[in-house]
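Review form for a predicted model. The reviewer records the input and the model, then writes brief findings.
Reviewer: anonymous (R2)
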Amino acid sequence: MKYKAGLYITLFFEMLKLSAFTFGGGYVIVPLMKRSFVEKHRLLNEKEMLDYTAVAQSAPGAVAVNAAILVGMKVGGATGAALTLIATILPPLVIISVIALVYEAFASSVIVAAALRGMRAGICAVIADAVISMIAAVTKEHRQGSPLQWLRILLIPASFIAVFVFKLNAAVIIVAGALVGCAVAFISGKAGERK
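Model under review:
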Protein backbone atom coordinates (compact mmCIF):
# COMPACT_ATOMS: atom_id res chain seq x y z
CA MET A 1 0.00 0.00 0.00
CA LYS A 2 2.92 2.31 0.81
CA TYR A 3 4.30 1.73 -2.70
CA LYS A 4 0.92 2.58 -4.24
CA ALA A 5 0.66 5.81 -2.23
CA GLY A 6 4.15 6.85 -3.38
CA LEU A 7 3.27 6.01 -6.95
CA TYR A 8 0.08 8.06 -6.81
CA ILE A 9 1.93 11.01 -5.31
CA THR A 10 4.55 10.81 -8.06
CA LEU A 11 1.90 10.61 -10.78
CA PHE A 12 -0.10 13.52 -9.39
CA PHE A 13 2.75 15.93 -8.71
CA GLU A 14 4.66 15.15 -11.92
CA MET A 15 1.56 15.86 -14.02
CA LEU A 16 0.69 18.92 -11.92
CA LYS A 17 4.18 20.31 -12.46
CA LEU A 18 4.16 19.55 -16.18
CA SER A 19 0.71 21.03 -16.66
CA ALA A 20 1.44 24.15 -14.62
CA PHE A 21 4.71 25.06 -16.30
CA THR A 22 4.17 23.92 -19.88
CA PHE A 23 2.92 26.36 -22.50
CA GLY A 24 1.74 25.20 -25.91
CA GLY A 25 -0.64 22.35 -25.21
CA GLY A 26 -0.37 18.61 -25.73
CA TYR A 27 2.31 18.62 -28.37
CA VAL A 28 4.63 20.29 -25.89
CA ILE A 29 3.61 18.35 -22.77
CA VAL A 30 3.86 14.86 -24.34
CA PRO A 31 7.67 14.93 -24.87
CA LEU A 32 8.05 16.26 -21.32
CA MET A 33 5.86 13.39 -20.09
CA LYS A 34 8.21 11.04 -21.90
CA ARG A 35 11.21 12.54 -20.12
CA SER A 36 9.44 12.30 -16.78
CA PHE A 37 7.74 8.91 -16.93
CA VAL A 38 10.12 7.03 -19.27
CA GLU A 39 13.56 8.49 -18.61
CA LYS A 40 13.37 9.90 -15.06
CA HIS A 41 10.96 7.59 -13.18
CA ARG A 42 11.09 4.58 -15.56
CA LEU A 43 7.37 3.88 -15.10
CA LEU A 44 6.89 3.25 -18.85
CA ASN A 45 9.11 2.20 -21.71
CA GLU A 46 9.60 4.27 -24.85
CA LYS A 47 7.38 2.07 -27.01
CA GLU A 48 4.47 2.36 -24.56
CA MET A 49 4.81 6.15 -24.47
CA LEU A 50 4.91 6.28 -28.26
CA ASP A 51 1.77 4.13 -28.47
CA TYR A 52 -0.03 6.28 -25.88
CA THR A 53 0.96 9.42 -27.76
CA ALA A 54 -0.51 8.00 -30.97
CA VAL A 55 -3.77 7.06 -29.23
CA ALA A 56 -3.94 10.42 -27.39
CA GLN A 57 -3.54 12.31 -30.67
CA SER A 58 -6.09 10.14 -32.46
CA ALA A 59 -8.79 10.27 -29.78
CA PRO A 60 -11.20 13.19 -29.44
CA GLY A 61 -10.27 15.79 -26.85
CA ALA A 62 -7.12 17.49 -25.67
CA VAL A 63 -3.91 15.57 -26.39
CA ALA A 64 -2.39 16.34 -22.97
CA VAL A 65 -5.49 15.16 -21.11
CA ASN A 66 -5.80 12.00 -23.21
CA ALA A 67 -2.12 11.15 -22.74
CA ALA A 68 -2.30 11.83 -19.00
CA ILE A 69 -5.30 9.51 -18.61
CA LEU A 70 -3.60 6.73 -20.59
CA VAL A 71 -0.34 7.03 -18.63
CA GLY A 72 -2.18 7.21 -15.31
CA MET A 73 -4.31 4.16 -16.18
CA LYS A 74 -1.28 2.11 -17.22
CA VAL A 75 0.82 3.01 -14.20
CA GLY A 76 -1.79 3.36 -11.44
CA GLY A 77 -5.09 1.94 -12.68
CA ALA A 78 -8.33 3.90 -12.39
CA THR A 79 -7.03 5.90 -9.41
CA GLY A 80 -3.89 6.82 -11.33
CA ALA A 81 -5.99 7.91 -14.31
CA ALA A 82 -8.21 10.07 -12.09
CA LEU A 83 -5.20 11.67 -10.38
CA THR A 84 -3.38 12.45 -13.62
CA LEU A 85 -6.60 13.85 -15.10
CA ILE A 86 -7.12 16.19 -12.13
CA ALA A 87 -3.45 17.19 -12.10
CA THR A 88 -3.57 17.97 -15.83
CA ILE A 89 -6.70 20.12 -15.85
CA LEU A 90 -6.24 21.92 -12.51
CA PRO A 91 -3.40 24.36 -13.46
CA PRO A 92 -4.97 25.53 -16.77
CA LEU A 93 -8.33 25.95 -15.02
CA VAL A 94 -6.79 28.18 -12.33
CA ILE A 95 -4.52 30.10 -14.74
CA ILE A 96 -7.28 30.77 -17.29
CA SER A 97 -9.65 31.87 -14.52
CA VAL A 98 -7.08 34.39 -13.26
CA ILE A 99 -6.31 35.60 -16.79
CA ALA A 100 -10.03 36.07 -17.46
CA LEU A 101 -10.24 38.37 -14.43
CA VAL A 102 -7.38 40.63 -15.56
CA TYR A 103 -7.63 40.21 -19.35
CA GLU A 104 -9.01 43.68 -20.00
CA ALA A 105 -6.02 45.28 -18.26
CA PHE A 106 -3.42 43.29 -20.20
CA ALA A 107 -5.10 42.78 -23.60
CA SER A 108 -3.51 45.85 -25.19
CA SER A 109 -0.16 45.65 -23.38
CA VAL A 110 2.86 45.74 -25.71
CA ILE A 111 4.93 43.81 -23.16
CA VAL A 112 2.38 40.99 -22.89
CA ALA A 113 2.13 40.77 -26.70
CA ALA A 114 5.94 40.59 -26.99
CA ALA A 115 6.13 37.89 -24.30
CA LEU A 116 3.50 35.81 -26.10
CA ARG A 117 5.38 36.10 -29.42
CA GLY A 118 8.56 34.91 -27.69
CA MET A 119 6.71 32.01 -26.11
CA ARG A 120 5.34 31.01 -29.53
CA ALA A 121 8.90 30.69 -30.89
CA GLY A 122 9.90 28.50 -27.95
CA ILE A 123 6.80 26.33 -28.36
CA CYS A 124 7.63 25.76 -32.04
CA ALA A 125 11.08 24.51 -31.01
CA VAL A 126 9.63 22.11 -28.43
CA ILE A 127 7.07 20.77 -30.93
CA ALA A 128 9.86 20.25 -33.51
CA ASP A 129 11.84 18.37 -30.84
CA ALA A 130 8.79 16.18 -30.13
CA VAL A 131 8.32 15.38 -33.83
CA ILE A 132 12.01 14.52 -34.29
CA SER A 133 12.00 12.33 -31.14
CA MET A 134 8.91 10.45 -32.28
CA ILE A 135 10.32 9.90 -35.77
CA ALA A 136 13.57 8.62 -34.24
CA ALA A 137 11.65 6.23 -31.96
CA VAL A 138 9.51 4.90 -34.82
CA THR A 139 12.50 4.32 -37.13
CA LYS A 140 14.49 2.68 -34.31
CA GLU A 141 11.58 0.34 -33.56
CA HIS A 142 11.27 -0.78 -37.19
CA ARG A 143 14.96 -1.03 -38.07
CA GLN A 144 14.98 -4.75 -37.22
CA GLY A 145 11.55 -5.40 -38.78
CA SER A 146 10.50 -6.82 -42.09
CA PRO A 147 10.57 -4.71 -45.27
CA LEU A 148 6.83 -4.30 -44.89
CA GLN A 149 7.41 -2.44 -41.60
CA TRP A 150 9.04 0.38 -43.56
CA LEU A 151 5.63 1.19 -44.99
CA ARG A 152 4.84 2.71 -41.58
CA ILE A 153 7.96 4.87 -41.83
CA LEU A 154 6.81 6.17 -45.21
CA LEU A 155 3.62 7.38 -43.53
CA ILE A 156 5.60 10.16 -41.82
CA PRO A 157 6.59 12.13 -44.96
CA ALA A 158 3.32 11.13 -46.66
CA SER A 159 1.37 12.69 -43.79
CA PHE A 160 3.32 15.95 -44.01
CA ILE A 161 2.73 16.07 -47.78
CA ALA A 162 -0.98 15.29 -47.32
CA VAL A 163 -1.39 18.14 -44.81
CA PHE A 164 0.82 20.84 -46.28
CA VAL A 165 0.48 20.17 -50.02
CA PHE A 166 -2.94 18.59 -50.44
CA LYS A 167 -4.55 20.24 -47.36
CA LEU A 168 -6.16 16.96 -46.27
CA ASN A 169 -8.10 16.88 -43.01
CA ALA A 170 -6.14 15.42 -40.06
CA ALA A 171 -8.95 12.91 -39.38
CA VAL A 172 -8.47 11.39 -42.84
CA ILE A 173 -4.72 11.04 -42.22
CA ILE A 174 -5.29 9.43 -38.81
CA VAL A 175 -7.76 6.90 -40.23
CA ALA A 176 -5.44 6.14 -43.17
CA GLY A 177 -2.52 5.66 -40.78
CA ALA A 178 -4.57 3.31 -38.59
CA LEU A 179 -5.63 1.27 -41.63
CA VAL A 180 -2.05 0.98 -42.90
CA GLY A 181 -0.84 -0.01 -39.41
CA CYS A 182 -3.53 -2.69 -39.12
CA ALA A 183 -2.78 -3.99 -42.63
CA VAL A 184 0.96 -4.20 -41.93
CA ALA A 185 0.35 -5.99 -38.60
CA PHE A 186 -2.11 -8.42 -40.23
CA ILE A 187 0.16 -9.22 -43.19
CA SER A 188 3.24 -9.51 -40.93
CA GLY A 189 1.31 -11.86 -38.63
CA LYS A 190 0.24 -14.04 -41.56
CA ALA A 191 3.82 -14.14 -42.84
CA GLY A 192 5.01 -15.14 -39.34
CA GLU A 193 2.49 -17.99 -39.18
CA ARG A 194 3.76 -19.42 -42.48
CA LYS A 195 7.35 -19.61 -41.22
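Findings: The chain has a mean pLDDT of 81.
Further findings: Helices lie at 2-21, 26-40, 46-58, 63-106, 110-142, 150-164, 170-194.
Recommendation: see findings above.
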